[in-house]
Amino acid sequence: MDSLSKKKIAEANELLSDAAKAMKTSLFKRKPDLDTAADAYSKAGTCFKTAKEFQNAIQAFQNAAQCYEQNNSYFSAAKQHEQVGIIANEMKSFSLVYDSFYKSAELMILNGTRDSAGILLERGASMLKLSDPESSLKLVKRAIQVAEVEDKNHQLVTMYENAVNLSLKINNYTEAVQLIDSSYELLEKIGTSEQIIRYILTVCLIHLSKDDWVSAKNYLEKMKQRFSLSCRADELLEIYDEKEDEKFKDLIKNYLSYAVDNEALKIANRIIKSKEWISSIQETKVMQSHTNNQTDQTSHLNEKKSQQADEEEFPDGLL
């Protein structure tokens, strides 16, 4: 341990002692001095954090948050939980990251600073996006609820997009479709046609990934009635129905690769790599081969019958 860390730990321990004294009550001091204790705990947390004594730092910041909250200082309490979340992320304690940022945001809402609450929720969600996408999704959904009260339409578009992608990432397709359906009214308000098309294609891919062509077709027809937009969803469904493997791959490469988000594109790629798709392609080829053989046989029989008819009409020597 270097000299700076030792110095900060000693300083932190003195501050903890000050906090403990501030919290004591007596015959002449009926209530604890919450402000003094909270300030000391918070400064101790910062010292422990500098010394990389993370567990002690977390405890100190949580004590500070408790004191601030008891004193109705919700903004200051929220900032302490934010510090806990940041440290927890560095420690890869992802459940604590979620709990801390969620609690911090709720305190900001109590404080009346909803904008700050939204920022905290998005920050926590960003930290958890790769390590814990399910918890990240919960934070984004809460951020959506907060932003909807404030009518922050353009921010909501991005939040919904993040939530949809997280739902797809964890294969929660039901959640993804619900989020997409919830976002359409918002997208109509601000005229984001590209995002609407992206979502329509995404839902069609979700249904096709379940080999449910009928639901994909019904959904597309419903969306065509609602929106006057041009996209290649009809072509996607036709190619899938006809089991045109090369055309599907070409559509992914030359259209879907830029028409949908990455998580939806993964669904398309999984479809063409699935055992069900490969099996259906092979069955289609066998059926086509059988049909071609039947056509050839029929053509050969017809040709033979024509020759026989000619021979009957024109016996040898009369042609």
Overall description:
- By secondary structure, the chain is an all-alpha fold.
- Helices cover 83% and strands 0% of the residues.
- The protein contains 15 helices and no strands.
- The chain has helices at residues 3-23, 34-50, 54-70, 74-90, 94-111, 114-128, 133-150, 153-169, 173-190, 193-209, 213-226, 233-242, 245-259, 262-273, 275-313.
- It is elongated and about 130 Å long.
Write the layout of secondary structure elements.
Blueprint: H1 3-23, H2 34-50, H3 54-70, H4 74-90, H5 94-111, H6 114-128, H7 133-150, H8 153-169, H9 173-190, H10 193-209, H11 213-226, H12 233-242, H13 245-259, H14 262-273, H15 275-313
Helix pairs in contact: 1-2, 2-3, 3-4, 4-5, 5-6, 6-7, 7-8, 8-9, 9-10, 10-11, 10-14, 11-12, 13-14
Percent of residues in helices: over 70%
- What's the total count of β strands? 0
Helix-strand pattern: HHHHHHHHHHHHHHH
Query: For the CA atoms, what is the radius of gyration?
Result: 33 Å
Mean of residue pLDDT values: 90
Question: Major sheet: size, sense and barrel closure?
Answer: none
Structural class: mainly alpha
- Distance linking N and C termini: 113 Å
**Low-pLDDT ranges:** none
Q: Per the principal axes of the C-alpha atoms, what is the gross shape?
A: elongated
- Beta-strand residue fraction: under 5%
Helix tally equals: 15
Characterize this entry briefly:
This protein is mostly helical and 319 residues long. Helices cover 83% and strands 0% of the residues.
List keywords for this structure.
single chain, 319 residues, mainly alpha, 0% strand, elongated
